Amino acid sequence: MSQDPEQAKKLEALLKMLAISKGDTSKLTQPQRKQFEEYKFWKTQPVSRFDDKVDDEGPINSSQRSEDVPDEPLPLLDEFQWCTVDLTDPEQLDDVFILLNENYVEDQDATFRFNYSREFFNWSLKGPGWRKDWHVGVRTKQSGRLVAFISAVPATLRVRNKLIKSVEINFLCIHKKLRAKRLTPILIKEVTRRVNKQDIWQALYTAGVVLPSPTATCRYAHRPLNWSKLYEVGFTGLPANASKTQMIAKYTLPKETDTAGLRPMEEKDVDKVFELLNKYQSRFDLIQVFTKEEFKHVFLSSKNVVYSYVVENNGIITDFVSFYSLPFTVLNNPNYRELGIGYLFYYASDADFEYPDRFHPEGSSKLRKRLNRLISDVCIKARDLKMDVFNAMSCQDNSLFLDDLKFGPGDGFLNFYLFNYKVRPIAGGLRKDNSFDTEKRSSVGVVML
Questions:
Q1: Helix axes 30-42, 183-196, angle to 10 degrees
Q2: What is the DSSP code (8-state) at residue 429?
Q3: Selection from 302, 309, 327, 303 nearest residue 388 by Cα
Q4: How far is CA 380 from the centre of its chain?
Q5: I need a surface site. Which of 39, 62, 346, 428 has the fewest CB within 10 A?
Q6: Alpha carbon 251 to chain centroid distance?
Q7: 235: buried, middle or exposed (CB in 10 Å: 19+, 13-18, 0-12)?
Q8: Exactly one of 28, 178, 326, 449 is catalytic; which is it?
Q9: For the Glycylpeptide N-tetradecanoyltransferase N-terminal domain, which residue ranges apply (predicted)?
Q10: Does residue 420 come out as left (phi exceeding 0), alpha (psi in the -120 to 50 range) or beta?
């Protein structure tokens, strides 16, 4: 499994410090101390260790019983109290909206921040089978203000050939002023307790940092759609020996799409596309298995959040592709308040179905050609929706088109983790130097929001 060399170097240094200090963090910097505490917490959890050798894949701890799970959560500091956030209540939905838009992930220079919409939360957190008590919050007793949040949504995973009843953990957010209060481990334990009460013991989660121990590592890639704006807000720089005019020309897309039969997906397409996606997803080692009800919710329920397209010719649907919108707020810029961001989501193609081997040279060549045209057209669709950059990961078969379509490798890496499940490393579509691997590609087929 490939890892960012810089992250690996930092991790090695941390492990040395752990061995030397034996718990003494007095000489560590604040970031080192935070990483130390995170590592110390995960050592207490049923997760794979860095040096684990996995012979048999499966649950780490399989002896738990839901009736043995405590009915009450861990105690909080006196000024805080647990709550269940009711997203059907507009006021409580607003609480989550405000907390995440003001305190969730932003870049290190505090220039950009995710700008979630209320519709995005309804789409991502209220799919089929969602549970109100899996939307966990912490409020201050005095004001009732929501200051921390974490969520779980039900998901059936397939890890290689095994189906796992699971949840996906997302939107862990703590108010900036409270991040020294050690709320993160308590939030994780509380959402775990609530999920365990439903006799579910596995979870999928992601993080940009290296924790014990990644199942897979993928890399972000960015394709400028409006290079001028990206440059003006500081999202991208001007390369040496290049002019602004040259960069604008480099990333200019055709005015019209090129794929015959490309159109928005409709309700009538569900059965055919559901079958196509399932067949395409079968090539990967880590996927989410959708029911038809879940499929309809994920790809058709939120027109302003997720965009789904099919390619139909002579009554046959040969391709499916989707992307979702999650803009950035631009901080401290007098000219722009928002960046439009598109994220490649799930797709499927029958281009290489005639070849039983996913890596057959002729099949890979046909798939590469098909995906290059399809994703290029998706970029045009995103541009026409006023999006300024289009993001993708090195997961799925993306390595076949990322370089061809001028996606630049990003600085960020996303690590995939399985809770209470040990598994051999799964390819993330990266070579040892972290460039995109067009030959082996990725075996990660799940796309996390």
A1: 20
A2: S
A3: 327
A4: 23
A5: 62
A6: 25
A7: buried
A8: 449
A9: 59-218
A10: left
Where residue 198 falls (left for φ over 0; alpha for ψ -120 to 50; beta otherwise) is: alpha
Q: Give the integer Cα–Cα distance in Å for 318 and 282.
A: 16
What's this model's pTM, rounded to 2 decimal places?
0.89
Closest C-alpha to 422, from 40, 177, 11, 61: 61
d(CA 169, CA 358): 30
DSSP 387-401: -SEEEEES-TTGGGT
The CATH number, out of the four listed (3.40.50.2300, 3.40.630.30, 3.30.2130.10, 3.40.50.1110), of the domain defined by the range 59-212:
3.40.630.30
My answer on whether omega of the bond before 166 falls inside 30° of 0, hence cis, is no
Count of all residues that appear for the chain in the document = 449
Q: 118-148 burial by CB neighbour count: b if 16+ within 10 A, else e?
A: eebbbbbbbbeebeeebbbbbbeeeeeebbb
Report d(CA 47, CA 32) in Å as an integer: 21
E-state strands within 225-340: 262-264, 286-289, 306-313, 316-325, 328-330, 338-339
Nearest to 219 by CA among 56, 416, 383: 416
Q: Which two tokens stand for residue 320?
A: 């499916």
Task: Decide: 374 and 347 in contact? Cβ < 8 Å.
Answer: yes
The CATH homologous superfamily for domain 217-419 is Gcn5-related N-acetyltransferase (GNAT) (3.40.630.30)
Could you tell me the residue ranges of all domains in the chain? 1-44, 59-212, 217-419
Q: What is the pLDDT along the chain (449 residues), one digit of tens a residue?
A: 444 454 455 444 444 443 433 344 444 455 555 555 666 788 888 888 877 888 889 999 988 899 999 999 999 999 999 999 999 999 999 999 999 988 876 545 567 778 889 999 999 999 999 999 999 999 999 999 999 999 999 999 999 999 999 999 999 999 999 988 889 999 999 999 999 999 999 999 998 888 888 999 999 999 999 999 999 998 888 988 899 999 999 999 999 999 999 999 999 999 999 999 999 999 999 999 999 999 999 999 898 899 999 999 999 999 999 999 999 888 888 899 899 999 999 999 999 999 989 999 999 999 999 999 999 999 999 999 999 999 999 999 999 999 999 999 988 899 999 999 999 999 999 999 999 999 999 999 999 98
| Contact between residue 122 and residue 302 where contact means Cβ atoms under 8 Å apart | yes
Residue 164's CB: how many other CB atoms inside 10 A?
Answer: 20
Q: Name residue 288's beta-bridge partners.
A: 157
> How many CB atoms sit inside 10 A of residue 20's CB?
9
Would you tell me how many other CB atoms lie within 10 Å of the CB of residue 176? 11
Question: Would residue 163 show up in a list of annotated catalytic residues for this protein?
Answer: no
